[in-house]
Design a protein that fits this description.
The protein is α/β, with parallel strands linked by helices. The relative contact order is 0.08.
């Protein structure tokens, strides 16, 4: 944070003798974090002006959010397991965004901020006085009374902790209503005196509770005798010299030039954000983890809308929030920074606090604009509002809530009119105010615990950490394997679901391993061509913001290869995750929640290796529909991108040929040493991802890297063919034909199986049958060549007959032994599977 510019508190320090002493957690001194200004206030003339809060001083949004988020992480470390039951309370108006971002850093903590805006018909859940403030009264208006009635820790967040009186007033009021055993006070700066620290300790003892303090920086403010009176006199003296806008110029102004490429039409343009339904503008009535997931999913889209509304060539943009509305503008500023390539984005908000503006580099408030309040405030006091240091920007994005979108806002002397005097480009973005009982989830609907972060190699899987994030629970130390025949009996008899256990991991013979290497050498170019083709189709359909979401586990090697192609061909670093989907149980809903919280759902591209009869394609479509209806999260596109689509089940594929993909020849040793996924109630709870194992003991046999590197090495050789394939496929009708499903139904009937789940079409699925299930027989397309060498070898090792057949839409089909399927008959009319 340190710069060569003079300290922004020097002007006040020189005149009043105020001094700051102390250091921050991350190498910042107090002079890096705080400046000084003067205000007309009978209780405190000087004002500590934060450089990282985003209130009075425009700051990079990631800086503002990052400091607050890290404070939240520290609170979570302090609280340990009890953080899952914590509630975060921020102080209006200055710390509403700070508190919200602290709640983000804690994980899934619900959030509430105090307010000075009364809401007719809403009974306050508490109230307190901020004695030194310009506007002292605070109200608590939770939508759900349970928010303040719990027994978990209460985390109180303010921008500065100067005396502790406000904190004590808050805790005294709330503790009388709902006693707690622990409170945590969080602030950017802790500047209490020794007497103030002792007062807080005595107060905690009086209430028989514990109060911890977490701050970004701590120190002291040295105030000489008579500073209040001298400060008031200085304010009165300099206010008399104020020029236009209330600023006193004591040095040559240093305005930043406006861009030559701004919208010369004048006026204010409204931008429709597409704010997600049911998400509050902030935390005035409560903000729940379910809200957070919806907002995170929508932010990239809203950022692009703002970026598209800016004129070309804009270099500096200010996103200006409005009093208590701090968090939503902050997150929108972050999203705009991501979307507006090349533009410098800063963030700050308006305020009701009057501060003297002095145009001097050693003073924290260089300029100010004054305008009337525009949200019909019901509290007493001045109706003037202020915005500081908002000059020198090519464009200003003014963000207000719908309550503040009034005639006063649009009046000539209103906020928008004052901003239009400073820049040719003013955009207005309105966030709908969500009143209580207008769609806010209650405490019982909010996720009780944050979802874990993705697992990554080398701690989980043999893939590099950047290749894939596994949205799975590590069950490596759990004994899950059962003999194949025992598992098959349990599955077919209905005694267990196939996802509740794992087959014993197949260990290939030396002959089979050599066959794999031969197959890989012979098919690397063909696979690379399919990888390139399907990746180019995905980028053409979804754009460069695509997020690859592989279906565990066969989709994972394909997703890694698609990510490598995107980097090779376009220099893109696509995010890539693996999630679990289980036939009959659907996709992992917690994984979808995590994705929606970190990416736009519409950017998620589900990836698999190949299609068989299309059961997973249908399962995904049904599961996504159910998830969206239940969670209220929309945007996921339930299509699957695959290397090979012999079943005609999808529209995004590399080829529809049924050919050998060597990653199908093995189990975990070609898939990062990860097992098939497991879903069992006693192992995966309501806040867990589906589970899987990491077979570390098989590192010596791992060929996952060999497979990936062999295919990636062929990218350059097949680039021209990929371009031709993409051009051809984009001109074709690629709609699903579902020819594979029809063929499976015919085979099931013809062979007397009467259960399509026991018919596994295609090279990949047939290989799985031979490796994991109890195969009955293999149907091979007459004349099929080397693509089936490994199938023939496995079948020979397991004593399974291979029958050649005509008219198969697949190279081969694996039939699982129907010995437990009642009423099944063979082609000779005799019952099959009789024990």
């Amino acid at each position: 944070m340190a710069t060569n510019a003079p300290w922004s508190g020097q002007w006040v320090a020189d005149r009043l003798g105020v001094a700051l002493h102390g250091d921050g957690l991350y190498g910042d001194g107090l002079h890096d974090l705080l400046g000084l200004a003067l205000r007309r206030n009978p209780k405190r003339a000087h004002l500590l002006v934060s450089q990282v809060l985003g209130k009075h001083v425009p700051q990079r949004p990631d800086t503002v959010y990052g400091y607050a988020y890290r404070l939240g992480e520290r609170v979570r470390e302090l609280l340990g397991d009890s953080a899952d039951r914590a509630v975060v309370l921020g102080y209006a108006e200055t710390a509403t965004g700070l508190g919200h971002a602290v709640a983000d850093g804690m994980g899934a903590a619900p959030y509430l901020h105090s307010t000075r805006r009364e809401v007719p018909g809403v009974t306050p859940g508490g109230g307190f006085e901020e004695e030194h403030s310009h506007a002292t009264g605070h109200l608590l208006l939770p939508e759900d009374p349970a928010l303040l009635a719990g027994d978990g820790p209460l985390v109180l967040v303010d921008d500065e902790f100067s005396t502790g009186r406000t904190i004590r007033n808050t805790i005294r009021d709330l503790h009388a209503r709902h006693p707690r055993t622990r409170y945590v006070v969080v602030a950017l700066t802790d500047l209490r005196s020794a007497a103030d620290r002792a007062a807080l300790s005595d107060f905690a003892a009086e209430l028989s509770t514990r109060i911890d303090v977490v701050a970004l920086a701590s120190g002291t403010v040295a105030l000489p005798a008579g500073v209040l009176e001298r400060g008031q006199a200085l304010v009165a003296e300099w206010e008399g010299q104020a020029g236009p806008g209330g600023a006193v110029s004591v040095s040559a102004p240093v305005p930043a030039p406006l861009s030559d490429a701004v919208d010369g039409a004048g006026g204010v343009r409204r931008v429709e954000l597409g704010w997600p339904d049911g998400v509050p503008d902030g935390g005035r009535h409560g903000f729940w983890p379910a809200h957070r997931a919806l907002l995170e999913a929508a932010l990239p889209r809203m950022g692009r809308r703002l970026a598209d509304a800016l004129p070309a060539g804009v270099a500096r943009v200010l996103v200006l929030g409005n009093e208590e509305l701090m968090y939503a503008p902050l997150r929108l500023a972050q999203a705009l920074q991501e979307a507006a390539t090349g533009a410098e984005v800063r963030y700050s908000t308006t305020t009701r606090s009057p501060v003297l503006a002095v145009d001097d580099p050693g003073y924290a408030i260089r300029t100010r604009i004054v305008f009337p309040a525009h949200d019909d405030p019901t509290d007493s006091g001045t109706r003037e509002r202020y915005a500081y240091n908002v000059t020198g920007f090519d464009a200003v994005v003014c963000v207000v809530d719908s309550t503040g979108d009034t005639a006063a806002l649009h009046a000539p002397d209103g906020l928008l009119g004052r901003l239009a005097e400073l820049t040719d480009t003013v955009l207005l973005a309105v966030v709908p105010s969500l009143r209580p009982n207008e769609g806010a989830p209650t405490m019982s609907q909010a996720a009780p615990r944050p979802l874990p972060e993705p697992l990554r190699g080398p701690d989980f899987s043999s893939y590099a950490a950047d290749e894939v994030g596994w949205l799975l629970k590590d069950l490596s130390d759990v004994e899950l394997e059962a003999p194949t025949e025992e598992r098959e009996e349990a599955v077919q008899s209905g005694g267990a679901h196939y996802a509740e256990s794992l087959p014993v991991e197949y260990q290939p013979s030396a002959a089979y391993q050599e066959l794999f290497r031969t197959a890989l050498a012979g098919s690397a170019d063909r696979i690379a061509r399919a990888v390139g083709t399907v990746t180019e189709l995905v980028l053409a359909e979804r754009g460069p913001d695509a997020v690859l979401v592989s279906l565990a586990r066969a989709g994972t090697p394909v997703g890694v290869l698609m990510r490598r192609w995107a980097r090779y061909a376009h220099g893109l670093e696509l995010p890539h995750y693996t999630v679990s989907i289980v036939r009959g149980r659907g996709i992992d809903a917690n994984a979808l929640r995590w994705l929606a919280a970190h990416h736009a759902p519409a950017d998620a591209v589900f990836v698999d290796g190949w299609t068989g009869k299309g059961a997973i394609t249908r399962e995904l479509a049904d599961a996504v529909t159910e998830f969206e209806q239940r969670e209220g999260v929309s945007g996921f596109i339930p299509d699957i991108a695959v290397l090979a689509d012999p079943g005609g089940c999808v529209s995004t594929y590399g080829t529809r040929d049924d050919f050998l993909i060597p990653s199908a020849c093995l189990n975990s040793t070609v898939s990062g040493l990860i097992s098939r996924t497991v879903l069992r109630a006693d192992l995966t709870g309501p806040n867990d991802f589906h589970g899987a194992k990491f077979y570390r003991e098989l590192l010596g046999a791992d060929v996952s890297g060999l497979f990936l590197d062999s295919v990636a090495a062929a990218f350059e050789r097949v680039a021209d063919e990929v371009a031709g394939d993409v051009k051809s496929l984009r001109s074709q009708d690629r709609s699903p034909t579902w020819a594979g499903w029809a063929a499976v139904e015919r085979i099931s009937e013809e062979y007397g199986i009467n259960d399509v789940n026991l018919v596994k079409p295609g090279v990949g699925e047939t290989t799985r049958v031979l490796l994991r299930r109890v195969p009955w027989k293999i149907l091979a397309q007459r004349g099929a060549g080397a693509d089936l060498d490994h199938v023939r070898l496995l079948a020979e090792q397991r004593g399974v007959p291979v029958e050649e057949a005509d008219g198969l839409p697949y190279t081969c089909v694996g039939l699982i032994h129907p010995r437990y399927t009642r009423g099944a008959t063979g082609t000779d009319g005799k019952a099959v599977g009789a024990k």
